[in-house]
Amino acid sequence: ELSGSINNSGLIAAQAYGSTESASAAGIYVDSDITATGRITNSGTISAFADGTYSITATGIHVSGDMDGIITNTSTGLISAEVNEHSPSSSTNFAYGIYIDGELTGTLNNAGTITADATQSDNYTAAAYGVYVEGDLSGLLKNTGSIDVHATGTGYTAEAYGIYLDSGMTGILT
């Protein structure tokens, strides 16, 4: 669990290339919960790029659990995720600016820029999400910045969502 602070004012770049299999890249990956005292602050650039042939995912910030703390993307911050398919694939390609894999009971504040771009050229889905919350939103999700999301699917479906809440909401979205 993250109970301390991650502060980025520089450049974090993650790139993954899968020539025959999956490719997955994450700028910042927290492999559990962020506690109430945990913080991620970005005033720089966080980018994730993945290119492959099967099961391609890129995530700027990924929290693999509940988010009780604070994530802030300041007015100078840029978080970007891009997936590209270099040959026909047999799965969905996902790009997430920020992905919370649990409940959001804390605060997610975007005053900067979040981008997500997904491309799929075969008979599957290209899915791009600026902010994706898997669990309940009972905290605060605030956007005063820019969320720019694009999906291109030439063979099947393209889905693009600025903010996607996959479960219930009793919190605040502004």
| C-alpha geometry | globular
Q: Calculate the mean pLDDT score and round it.
A: 92
Note poorly predicted spans: none
Order of helices and strands: EEEEEEEEEEEEEEEE
Task: Report the structural category.
Answer: mainly beta
Radius of gyration: 15 Å
State the helicity in percent bands: under 10%
Number of strands: 16
Strand content: over 45%
Largest sheet: 6 strands, parallel
Distance N terminus to C terminus? Answer: 27 Å
Strand order of the largest sheet: 1-4-7-10-13-16
Instruction: Output the number of helix runs.
Output: 0
Task: State the main characteristics.
single chain; five-stranded parallel sheet; 174 residues; mainly beta; six-stranded parallel sheet
Provide a brief overview of the structure.
This protein has strands at 5-8, 11-17, 23-30, 39-42, 45-52, 56-63, 70-73, 78-85, 93-100, 107-110, 113-120, 125-133, 140-143, 146-153, 157-165, 172-173. The protein is mostly beta strands.
General description of the model:
It is a single chain. The strands form 3 sheets. Strands 1-4-7-10-13-16 form a 6-stranded parallel beta sheet, with no helix packed on it. The chain has strands at residues 5-8, 11-17, 23-30, 39-42, 45-52, 56-63, 70-73, 78-85, 93-100, 107-110, 113-120, 125-133, 140-143, 146-153, 157-165, 172-173. The protein contains no helices and 16 strands. It is 0% helix and 59% strand. The model has no long low-confidence stretch (mean pLDDT 92). The chain is mainly β.
